[in-house]
Automatic annotation (TrEMBL):
Compartments, record wording: Cell membrane
Ranges that cross the membrane: 301-327, 348-378, 398-422, 443-464, 476-497, 518-538, 819-839, 873-894, 926-944
Keywords from the UniProt entry: Cell membrane, Membrane, Transmembrane, Transmembrane helix
A single GO cellular-component term on record: plasma membrane
Name the record gives this protein: FtsX-like permease family protein
Domain of life from the UniProt record: Bacteria
Residue stretches making up the ABC3 transporter permease C-terminal domain: 308-426
Chain intervals with Polar residues compositional bias: 120-129
Keyword rRNA-binding: no
Record region (Disordered): 85-130
Membrane topology qualifier: Multi-pass membrane protein
Length: 956
């Protein structure tokens, strides 16, 4: 038999066998098609969502040929790259003149002759909504003009045609609760506009913005700014540098590179469609020589993608291999007939391999077709998720072909081991149906153990040395080592069932006896769980590190209502009422005041040289110095533990050295005016002695490092500028500096880390020292975090109180998205576990019909079939999950060692930096995988198994 006819016969036999065993064939096709479907859909989505250069230009320019942007530097020559995204002044160019001396540039004069243009200018704004007020961006652009097509598209209603009309993006309408026909007020100029249409930006579907005609918004702002200059609030329009021009060149000519160079001579940067799509040679680009060597290196990304692809192929092979093995076993009589008719062992192997090729090819075709269909079906959902419209479904033929070939090769690889086993069987064993006995390999577990130990050592060394490549390679090697040990582990399971009831004992022994079927499924579960556990462990560890290093801006559970620079601008009673009515406030508010000397620099910032200062002078000496600063700090930081390092960082001597929390009061002194209510509500210092000291006029010092012998040194410089007529009248005379020694009540060291406050001064002490003070706001205790609706309602109410106040809450709960990540990982691993366990259970049922018939013949009740299927599924799922958890810890620990190495390097450079790098196990995720998923798999398998025994024809 020649080669080609032999393979043709093998494929014919494989095709007929696949049609005859429809259930098993469908199972294998599904296992191969599902990953192919996922990769195909991912490739199509990625290629379609990743805009081409032409699509990116359309999103940026619309239907125009170019966008001209004046950089505001005057008629100064610039250099740019052809794409218009990178520009600079030429080397050796003189500094541009001061802004008030720069000559204006006539940008339209740089356009090609015969072109037309649109102007575009944007400004951040605060507008009214149905719920209250919201911050957004208003763009002045004639969106009805054909030049805007592709950049802004109308989805409902009509384009704005008058100066009192606007269009809103659909995202803005959803967030604001407004609809077409409603009116919106721009705060500041208090101009009212009617929403005439809903639009979308195809490249930014989640953009919440408004569009108006040129001159409809910014010009009224300028008039309002000129009219209200020096009043309660100045509303400044955008600067001229924000102005852009969308240019349509002469018919058929567009904007050329020579036009771009001419505009560069006048200080204008151009992004031209024609030039970007067909860039000039580097010899014509003055800036090209400086940009060489800026190419990005995607080596690590490519290595990661190849690793993921390899592990995906491995997992498919592990899942599909047992199906082919069972298929070959079920067809052993047919294979024996091939041998009895003169077929060689290679031809028997060819029949099994042809089955893999047939089913792999069908799975590849089905997967690719389903990938195209699902991508097209869910395209709107994908576009909404990515926030960008696809220009078209972008198909890379070679990539799709490669994905299909991958499915085909995977089917052949999955059939390789069963083909080798089938070729080794004798014709007599195949015809009689005897399985024979074959001792498990003694070499494979040894090789697996060596690979496991070597992989762990390599991953740990990679983590210590900071090589992510070694971490990845060692982790894969360790996982492959566990794979080699799985047959021995599965064989050991059979010994655990000696004292168990009937069905779990049979399930364990069946798993041990049929290692060729059980081990790959356990390995597939292990591979999926290992990846999920690794990522979950690394994520949970990073979250714990962030929580450890977190610096709150306020005391947790509090909210601060503050005024702007000048408290006279705000109506504090009305602002307080808005907070108390809308926020989940508990208890009465605590007053908060600021104190300063001379003229306040935070108000008279235009004359900073004529402002006073107020500071607490820190005593000198070792007791008052931070040990993490100066000589010996590096050695100390590397010697102590992470907890001791944090204790030092929060100590009175070090707390002010590196922490950048919000500062109450004036300047950096962190001195506030307050009473006992501030101590209990914000500082959380419930001390009658401290309250008594404040009532007696004695300040409470939270940071003992600033005190010596129970006193602090307060240095005040009384300097007044010309604008500060009020305070200057209260304190006439020349500038002077006063230094006072104040008796203070010193709080325990644990209160030194109170955010934003170093010392609480009673009002009588400030008056006694001749300092200025005024009410700054209030501190509230919250029962919970306010919702978005409560925040919006509060902002709207505070707007009515004079717009001179603002409120913020603690940022202690800003890392909440990790829980969703861990849940997604657990669900992914759970689905794979259920699938692998279900596949193995189905194969076990098909492979053990004779045993089930025997059980029924000896009087076993019908429920045994259900319970046996459930325990078989439970054995595979539980074993794979436990092994996967152990395997997943290896890369997680190695990556955390890499992070530790980087943290230690940062600590050597700055001893104030923490090197805390914990390894935190995600016990919730592990519990879900190790307990819930296996039990669920067993219950589902038992529930979906029929308890009735089919009548079987007696053999022979």
């Amino acid at each position: 038999m020649s080669l080609f006819p032999g393979w043709r016969a093998a494929f014919r036999i494989a095709r007929r066998d696949a049609v005859r065993a429809k259930g098993r064939s469908a199972l294998v096709v599904a296992m191969i098609a599902l990953p192919v479907l996922g990769v195909t859909a991912a490739d199509l989505t990625y290629r379609s969502a990743l805009p081409t250069v032409a699509e990116d230009l359309t999103a940026d320019l619309g239907a125009a040929d170019a966008r001209y942007t004046y950089q505001g530097m005057g008629p100064v020559r610039l250099e740019q790259m052809p794409d218009g995204l990178i520009w600079q002044t030429p080397e050796g160019s003189p500094e541009p003149p001061p802004e008030d001396e720069r000559k204006p540039v006539d940008v339209p004069a740089t356009f090609p002759e015969g072109s037309r243009h649109l102007t575009e200018q944007s400004a951040p704004a605060s507008v009214t909504t149905r719920h209250g007020i919201a911050d957004t961006q208003i763009t002045e652009l004639d969106v009805a003009d054909p030049l805007s097509r592709g950049r802004v598209e109308l989805t409902d209603g009509a384009y704005p045609r008058a100066r009192n009309e606007m269009a809103a993006t659909e995202a803005f309408l959803d967030a604001s609760g407004l609809s077409i026909g409603d009116r919106v007020t721009v705060r500041g100029p208090e101009q009212v506009y009617t929403l005439t249409g809903a639009v979308e930006r195809p490249a930014e579907l989640k953009d919440e913005s408004l569009f108006a005609l040129p001159g409809a918004v910014i010009a009224p702002w300028q008039k309002a700014a000129d009219r209200d200059a020096g009043g309660d609030e100045e509303i400044l329009p955008p600067q001229a540098s924000d102005l852009k021009w969308l240019v349509k060149g002469p018919s058929g000519a567009g904007v050329t590179w020579q036009d771009v160079l001419a505009a560069n001579e006048k200080g204008v940067v151009v992004r031209a469609r024609q030039v970007t799509l067909n860039p000039p040679p580097d010899s014509e680009v003055p800036m090209a020589a400086q940009m060489r060597g800026w190419e990005t290196n995607d080596r690590e990304m490519t290595a990661a993608a190849l690793t993921v692809a390899a592990m995906a192929v491995l997992e498919i092979v592990l899942l599909a291999g047992p199906a082919f093995a069972v298929g070959a076993r079920r067809s052993r009589r047919q294979l024996g007939l091939v041998g009895s008719c003169g077929g060689t062992r290679s031809q028997v192997r060819a029949v099994v391999l042809a089955g893999g090729a047939v089913l792999g090819g069908v799975g590849a075709v089905v997967g690719v077709a389903a990938g195209f269909g699902l991508t097209a079906l869910f395209r709107p959902v994908i576009e909404d998720f990515t926030g960008r419209r696809f220009g078209e479904l972008t198909v890379q033929p070679w990539e799709i072909l490669g994905i299909a070939v991958l499915g085909l090769v995977t089917g052949v690889l999955a059939a390789l081991a069963p083909a080798i086993v089938a070729g080794r069987q004798s014709v007599l064993e195949s015809l009689t149906g005897r399985r024979g006995s074959r001792r498990s390999s003694r070499v494979l577990p040894i090789v697996g153990s060596v690979a496991l130990a070597g992989g762990v050592a390599l991953a740990v060394y990679g983590g210590v040395s900071g090589s992510t490549e070694l971490v990845a390679g060692g982790s894969v090697l360790a996982e492959l080592g566990v794979l080699g040990c799985i047959p021995v582990i599965v064989g050991f399971l059979g010994r655990l069932g000696r004292r168990l009831p009937l069905t779990p004992r049979i399930a364990l022994r069946d798993a041990a006896r049929n290692r060729g079927r059980t081990a790959p499924a356990v390995a597939a579960v292990m591979a999926a769980v290992a990846g999920s556990v690794a990522i979950a462990t690394y994520t949970a560890s990073g979250t714990a590190e962030q929580a450890y290093d977190h610096q709150p801006n306020l005391t947790p559970g509090t909210a601060a209502l503050m005024t702007f620079d000048d408290a006279e601008q705000a109506d504090l009673p009305r602002a307080r009422a808005s907070v108390e009515q809308n926020y989940p406030v508990t208890g009465a508010p605590a007053g908060l005041g600021r104190v300063w000397a001379g003229s306040d620099c935070s108000v008279y910032y235009e004359e900073e040289n004529g402002c006073g200062t107020l500071e607490i002078v820190k005593p000198t000496g070792k007791a008052h110095s931070c040990p993490l600063k100066g000589k010996g700090a590096k050695e100390l930081a590397l010697r102590i533990s992470a907890d001791e390092h944090k204790r030092l960082m929060n100590s009175p001597a070090c707390i002010d050295e590196n922490y950048t929390t919000i500062v109450f009061g004036n300047g950096e002194n962190k001195i506030v005016i307050g009473d006992a209510a501030l101590l209990t509500s914000y500082v959380k210092l419930d001390d009658p002695a401290a309250a008594k000291a404040l009532a007696a006029g004695t300040p409470v010092l939270l940071n003992s490092a600033y005190a010596k012998n129970g006193e602090v040194t307060l240095k005040a410089t009384h300097i007044y500028n010309k604008r500060d007529k009020k305070n200057r009248a209260l304190h006439p005379g020349k500038a002077r500096t006063t230094t006072d020694r104040l008796k203070v009540y010193i709080a325990p060291d644990s209160y030194a880390a109170t955010p934003g406050i170093r010392m609480v001064m009673p009002q009588q002490a400030a008056d006694r020292l001749g300092l200025h003070s005024e009410e700054m706001g209030s501190i509230y205790t919250l029962g919970r975090e306010p919702t978005d609706a409560e925040r919006q309602a509060t902002d709207a109410a505070m707007e009515q109180a004079g717009n001179g106040t603002y409120v913020w809450t603690s940022n202690a709960a800003e890392q909440r998205d990790d829980a969703a990540v861990l849940l997604i990982l657990a669900l992914f691993a759970g689905v794979v576990t259920l699938g692998a366990a279900a596949i193995t259970t189905g194969l076990s049922k098909a492979d053990a019909e004779a045993d089930l018939t025997t059980l029924s013949a000896v009087g076993a009740p019908p429920g045994v079939r259900r319970s046996l299927s459930g325990f078989q599924c439970l054995v595979v799922a539980l074993t794979g999950v436990l092994l996967g958890t152990l395997a997943g810890i290896v890369p997680a620990v190695a990556l955390r060692l890499t992070d530790l190495r980087a943290a230690l390097a940062d600590m050597r450079a700055d001893p104030m930096q923490s090197a805390y790098t914990p390894i935190v196990m995600p016990w919730e995720t592990i519990a879900l995988l190790a307990l819930v998923v296996p039990v669920l798999a067993g219950l589902l398998a038992a529930a979906l198994t029929s308890s009735r025994q089919k009548l079987a024809r007696r053999a022979g």
